[in-house]
Amino acid sequence: MALLEVSDLTVVFRRRGEAPFTAVDGVSFAVEPGQTVGLVGESGCGKSVTSLAIMGLLPRRGATVMGSVRFEGTELLSLSPRQMRDRRGRDLGMVFQDPLSSLNPVVSIGLQVTEVLERHRGMPRRQAMVEAADLLDKVGIPDPRRRLDEYPHQLSGGMRQRALIAMALACRPRLLIADEPTTALDVTIQAQILALLAELVRDTGTALIMITHDLGVVAGLCDEVNVLYAGRVVERAERHELFRRPRHPYTHGLLASIPRLDAPRGERLVPIQGSVADNIPWDHGCAFAPRCPRALEACVEITPHMGEEGGRLLRCHNPVQENQEVPA
Amino acid sequence: MLRYTLRRLLQLLGVVLVLSMLIFGWLRALPGGPVSALLGERGTEEGRRELTAQLGLDQPIFVQYGKFLGRALSGDFGMSTGVQPGDAAVEIFLQRFPATVELSAFAIVLAVLFGIPLGYLAARRRGGWLDNLGVVGSLVGVAVPVFFLAFLLKYLFAVQLGWLPASGRQTGGLEATRVTGFFVLDGLLTREWDAALDALAHLVLPAMALATIPFAVIFRITRAAVLDVLDEDYVRTAESKGLTTDVIRRRHVLRNAMLPVVTTIGLQTGALLAGAVLTEKVFAFPGLGEALALGFERRDYPVLQLLIVMAAMVYVLVNLVVDLSYAVIDPRVRTR
Amino acid sequence: MTGSVSRSGARPPLLGGRKERLDALAASSGKGDAGVSLAASAWRRLRRNPVFLVGAAIIVLFVVVALLSPWLAAHDPSARLLEGQVSRARNEIPPAQEGFPLGGDQVGRDLLSRLLVGSQQTLMVGVFATVIGLAGGLVLGTLAGALGGWVDSLVMRVVDVMLSIPSLLLAFSIGALFPRPSQFTVILAVATVQIPIFARLLRGSMLAQRGSDHVLAARALGVRPRAIVFRHMLPNSLGPVIVQATLVLAVAIIDAAALSFLGLGNPDDSIPEWGQMLGGAQNVIDSHPSLAFWPAGCIIVVALGFTLVGESMRDALDPKNRR
């Protein structure tokens, strides 16, 4: 049995006086215990909303969540807020994008770590402090005892993110969701944090959902990759498969727009034209069609279905051919 | 922290210096110049000449300013000419100070006690009836002239219903033995319960009138601050940790939302004296505000001079206290 | 009514919190990439905001009445037409009657006519006090913000000290400077209090912009400093200044009433003004509360109108609320 099974997850936002907006449109994927799964796409593709829906963190008013999220066989979407509260932080942990704004500025690092331990593992404050120092040590924060008394603004960006990871992993959750955990950090720090995540996940056997717009992050970390576009999964494949032979024109485009050091001098990057704002909804044809270099007549008329071929899922009428290498 | 406090005290010194110049300039600009201003209409020709010499008005302006400072520092602000003719201005200040402190403290406690919880509830149920009522109420509350509100309260609860006394600080014959000058406290200290209760009853209406604007402001700031904090990423982090709603509210929402509220409480406290001028006049409450009101009416410049300086000093001091307490609550200020 | 109060820490005018409020307001200027689009988007949100619409309706009605009051009033507001019905001994004032729907005041003048005509002086006090305060603040704030250095330090020290005296108290002190109060001294007293407020607002706005990209770009292009101040910085400060001016109008009307209440108002009541009417009614309020209630009601409604418009404009200009 999969650890987490998301099927047909749909999230609709309704605001007074505005048309309902479908942020996630029938997303399905599964995470096996200990596996690392990537959710990749541009901002606005629904990857963050997906993660918040899994965590039960979407606002109760204004957001409608449909479909199914099964965690170890339990349907999370039908749990009461209180039951969900018991699971968050214990079974499911989450690391957010901006470590500075995600930490409470007026509460010491120590208390922010120990409060999880007190809540879910019933530790008394003293014991929790010892454990917290241990946790900070594990995530590579030097001099952890002193750090416990410090406040977020006294830590560097990388240290803050390490502290957040320590909090998320404090109760050894079986699933960790990392939502763009490196985006707000310096490049050198990014690599360190990714290495740390990879190491922790390997050592603790925690499954990880990695949410990012950065294919580079995915390449180093994920077992399986889901590429999202306009609220739907457009391509899913094993990591090496995906990088070697991207089939969906969108995936292909994403890879082609990454600068590569080994590319011949003078070669141009190939950007994807337009932006998500040009999207048409999935009801009439493919949402990516207006930006797609391979769009056919059919693409604007018939909504493509998810098809499977050789362990790969693909939602496209005119996929990139197998023999076409990534231009590089 | 110590250096911060010292720096702030130094700044305070600068403010007082500029303030003294303003007051000095104000005295010179008064109708008839400082001599008639200080002596009032009752000054004799002889007294005039004497005071002119004493004030050194024939000397260069810098010398005059220096003498003014010297007199002010020694607490000599002259004799009252209108409020309590013949009494030293400082005497009047000392007499009336406890009354206004008692009233202001009661008012600000009322404002805080109602403003913060209601502001918090309004924010939690944004768009609910309490929120809408509170927002409309706080906007209207600010548009009502304070003295009119005082009249309204007095008319309703004292004149029409007769529930509470209409004026003064205590009923004749019920005076508590003076210990501190704070009548409620004195009554409690000397176990003269009826006197304490009587003094408290006299405080209720003026305190309500005085508390209205601080209440409206504290309500709105609390509401706005809580709404802001509820949107913060760290509240989402706290939710993602599965903490109990109680911990999230206390530790993560309220503690952060209180930062701007503390500033507001301080600023409102410092500015209370302006409202007290109007409120105390309506209720004939013998405090500093009434002295100011009488002083303005009767052009009692020695008293005005002293009380305005004190008002500004209190305002600045309260601000200092607020900034220091801010440093206690907010580690970002403390450990800078 | 949701969201009618600025979430960035709206404080009502006149009482405390001025420094922080002004700085926050000042910082909101010059954040838009282009003044036009900011104003346009603000206007779009305002048009649908019921708070703004109610406030604007009150203001429009107030101004129309003020302009037309000579024709609207049935009687001469200073004529003691009902003097015969006033009795000092029996503490009586003329009751409501045919032609005098609100009755007369303590000397027998028609109350309704006085209220109608009073709107004119009230509007005048508000507008003049605001304009004078704004002009003074504009000069000081622009000098401090544009020149910086010791000019800035000096101006701001004085401004800070003025702000450290509770504003009403400051207005009273200014009012007390004049041996014979008049409408003019009332306006001057109320206006002076606003000068440091506008000065701080404008200076804050200037400082916020000095380091901003559009000013840096203008400097890099070699635009003369004076042109930068007048063409690039001042127009961007306009939004916060308009918001503040609207709020000040309400404050001015209320402050003028407080001055009258303390005997620092215009003693000549042949041309009525609401604050003066309210202040003048204090001695008869226990026996004839209506003489205070009517002008007070007018002041409250009009002050509320300006406050609603000011607050909703501040909300609309707040970059945090842009969607």
Summarize the entry for a quick read.
The complex is a heterotrimer of chains A (328), B (336) and C (323). By secondary structure, chain A is α/β, with parallel strands linked by helices.
Overview of the molecule:
The complex is a heterotrimer of chains A (328), B (336) and C (323). By secondary structure, chain A is of the alpha/beta class. Chain A has a domain at 99-172. Helices cover 32% and strands 22% of the residues of chain A. Chain A contains 11 helices and 12 strands. Chain A has helices spanning 47-55, 81-87, 99-102, 109-121, 125-138, 144-148, 157-169, 187-204, 215-221, 239-244, 249-256; strands spanning 4-13, 21-31, 36-40, 63-71, 74-75, 92-95, 175-179, 207-212, 224-229, 232-238, 307-309, 312-314. In chain A, the strands form 2 sheets. Chain A has an 8-stranded mixed β-sheet with strand order 6-7-8-3-9-10-12-11, sandwiched between helices. In chain A, strands 2-1-4-5 form a 4-stranded antiparallel β-sheet, covered by helices on one side. With 336 residues, chain B is mainly α. Chain B folds into 2 domains: 2-73, no CATH class; 89-334, Orthogonal Bundle (MetI-like fold). Chain C has 323 residues and is mainly alpha-helical. Chain C has a domain at 65-85 and 94-279: MetI-like fold (Orthogonal Bundle). Chain C is 67% helix and 0% strand. Chain C has 11 helices and no strands. Chain C has helices at residues 18-27, 35-47, 50-72, 111-147, 149-164, 167-175, 183-210, 213-220, 225-261, 274-280, 290-317.
